[in-house]
Amino acid sequence: AGAETVKRAVELDLASRFQESLVCYQEGIDLLLQVVKGTGWGGGGRARGGLAAELCHDLFFSDGKYHKQIRIEENATGFGYEKLFQEYLTEIVSEVWVEDPYIRHVHQASRYSLYNFLRFCEMLVKGPCKVKTIHLLTSYDEGSGRSQQISSLEEIQQSLRNYGVTLNIAFSSSIHDREIRFNNGWMIKIGRGLDYFKKPQSRFSIGYCDFDLRPCHETTVDVFHTKHTKKM
């Protein structure tokens, strides 16, 4: 019964019926743990069962939210935006929120944040989702780079308009956290925001164009699913 319930949870998960799948995961895990505790596992069943319950709780439930953590190691490759976000960009996604204080000047030391944001927008335009609105909240570049920052964002805004996508841009002097939210309930928090790629060695080095081949800075990605991000 436990195995069948977990199987049903996986089917619901693949169908993007996340809240129902979480309930099935919990029920299935509880049933399996009852078997574990009943068999004893050589006298250590209670301890192992308790540990399993704790691990399952941490994996699937954090204050009622789904939580998954991805650790990107220093110099790791294979973490382009498509690989990282595609799983959560289901066909019902039509609205995206990006909060990142460092979507700034293209010549900022070792940062390509405006280009990274452009690449992220390209992924949304290409993806299976039908994004109509992107909300960007960032901070102003300091000094003389502000005018170029605004000009570059307006160019991205105009280009997106050609694809039927509206980009709303807002600035905040107090923004600190970095997070990306989709209106299907998924929320992704990346320690370094969209700027987790290392500077390419040159314009003609492998990884300059293909972000899957670009080495990364070490960072942590936390993925949540919660009904509190936005009602569908």
By CATH, the superfamily of the largest domain comes out as MITD, C-terminal phospholipase D-like domain
Counting DSSP E segments of at least 2 residues, the number of strands comes to 7
Strand order of the largest sheet: 1-7-6-5-2-3-4
Number of helices: 6
**Level-1 CATH class name of the largest domain:** Alpha Beta
H and E string: HHHEHEHEHEEEE
The span between the termini is 32 Å
Low-confidence stretches: 41-55, 228-232
Helix/strand-derived class?
A: alpha/beta
Number of domains: 2
Question: How is this fold's topology laid out?
Answer:
Layout: H1 2-14, H2 18-39, H3 45-60, E1 66-72, H4 81-85, E2 95-99, H5 113-126, E3 133-138, H6 146-161, E4 166-171, E5 179-182, E6 186-190, E7 219-225
Describe this structure in words.
The model is unreliable at 41-55 and 228-232 (pLDDT under 50). The chain has 232 residues and is of the alpha/beta class. The relative contact order is 0.16. Strand 2 (95-99), helix 5 and strand 3 form a beta-alpha-beta unit. The protein has two domains: 1-39, no CATH class; 67-228, MITD, C-terminal phospholipase D-like domain (Endonuclease, Chain A, 2-Layer Sandwich), CATH 3.30.870. 37% of the residues lie in helices and 17% in strands. The two termini are 32 Å apart. It has helices spanning 2-14, 18-39, 45-60, 81-85, 113-126, 146-161; strands at residues 66-72, 95-99, 133-138, 166-171, 179-182, 186-190, 219-225. The protein has a seven-stranded mixed β-sheet.
